Amino acid sequence: MIATGLNSMSRGAAVVRVSQRDIEAALKTATERWKPDLLDLSHAIHADPELGGQEFRAAKRIRRLLHTAGFRFADRQPLQATALSASYGSGDLVVALCVEYDALPDIGHACGHNVNAASAVGAALALAAVADELGITVKVLGTPAEETTGGKADLIAEGFFEDVSLAMMAHAAAKDVVGGSSLAMSMWDVLFEGRPAHAAAAPMEGVNALDALVVAQTAIALARQQLPVGSIISLIVTEGGSAVNVIPERARASVEMRAPSIEKLRIIQDKVRRCLEAGAHASGCTLDVTPTGNDYAELRQDPFLSDAYRAAMTAIGRDVVFNAEPVASTDMGNVSQLVPSIHPMVGYDVRGAAHHTAEFAAFGASAGADQAIIDGSFGLAAAACAAALDPAERRRLLGKTRQ
């Protein structure tokens, strides 16, 4: 909860005095005002899932709501067709809300991104109500394709985080958790190409691409013992030949690598690439490795913002546990390497269902999910306000922006 009392804050030449209690009340009033719109947004996205990079209708719904709330859309928009950038206010402290809205194939919003989207938008709308009093700019960034190519990394590359002082979002989950990390991750598509031949009449004339893949996969399996602790390598064969009596001309695989940090991920990538090259060398095939989207860095959650979020959520009756263990992977990790960030998990009853299952998706428009949106909106907004009102934190965050 934002502590009671008065704080003085410089904004330009003026000194602004704001009541922290009044700010908290304004956040609650704003989230209640926008509650019907936020729940409509969540339910519409949930009922109309779109895959990463194809979230045209979700992005349109978000743009419409932000436009209604008076947000300005920058002349320069992200290159991705389903990304967006909008802002409210003109203060020097820029608070970015990262909005995710992509779904998974066949099982829809099995990671709860409709909840993620609505809670981030809700926090932005709440902060807009106090932007002038706090001397902040609220920046909403629509970030597509978290499940696949990592839209946040693209927005970083395009410069949309250069003016950001802090960034935040909340993620749907079975319980409230703050402080968690994530694993760095990368994915590659692998192609071996050889030469076809009759498998019985002239096998010596062929160059077996499947052999290359088998050698590479065996080398990767043997290499696991020497990898950094916490490393995960997953590989599937996506093409291994067309007929049993034909030496396979082509073999394809998809490999995913995860590690506790981006530095350790580089070690894994080097090891895996050499295993793939070994398969090509042993078989005489050519090798082509194509990254699938952006590499994801590990998530670093800011201690002050985490504590402020937890305090705000506890004050409205939610039980938020601290757990620093890494969970899966997210491109919010890339953002957190750049600016102070939080990515708490906001919980609701999913009857034990795990992320990325149809069972989890079924609870995405439940009453519990709806309440998580409203509470998460308030918690994120309150954390940003706590930082804006704390003179030392404000200086720290502004210093990060100007580096």
Poorly predicted runs of 5 or more residues = 1-16
Helix fraction by DSSP (H/I, runs of at least 4) = 40-55%
Cα gyration radius (Å): 24 Å
Q: How are strands sequenced across the largest beta sheet?
A: 3-4-6-5-7-15
Provide the CATH architecture of the largest domain. 3-Layer(aba) Sandwich
CATH topology name of the largest domain: Aminopeptidase
**Broad shape:** elongated
DSSP strand content: 15-25%
Name the features:
six-stranded mixed sheet, Aminopeptidase, Alpha-Beta Plaits, single chain, 403 residues, alpha/beta, 2 domains, disordered N terminus
Describe this structure in words.
The chain folds into two domains: 6-182 and 296-402, Zn peptidases (Aminopeptidase, 3-Layer(aba) Sandwich); 184-291, 2-Layer Sandwich (Alpha-Beta Plaits), CATH 3.30.70. Helix 1 (20-47) packs antiparallel against helix 2 and helix 3 packs across helix 11 (367-389). It contains twelve helices and 16 strands. With 403 residues, it is an alpha/beta fold. The longest helix is centred in the first third of the chain and has 28 residues, at 20-47. The two termini are 30 Å apart. The chain has a six-stranded mixed sheet with strand order 3-4-6-5-7-15, with helices on both faces. Strands 11-12-10-13 form a four-stranded antiparallel sheet, covered by helices on one side. It has a two-stranded antiparallel sheet with strand order 1-2. It is elongated and about 85 Å long. The model is unreliable at 1-16 (pLDDT under 50).
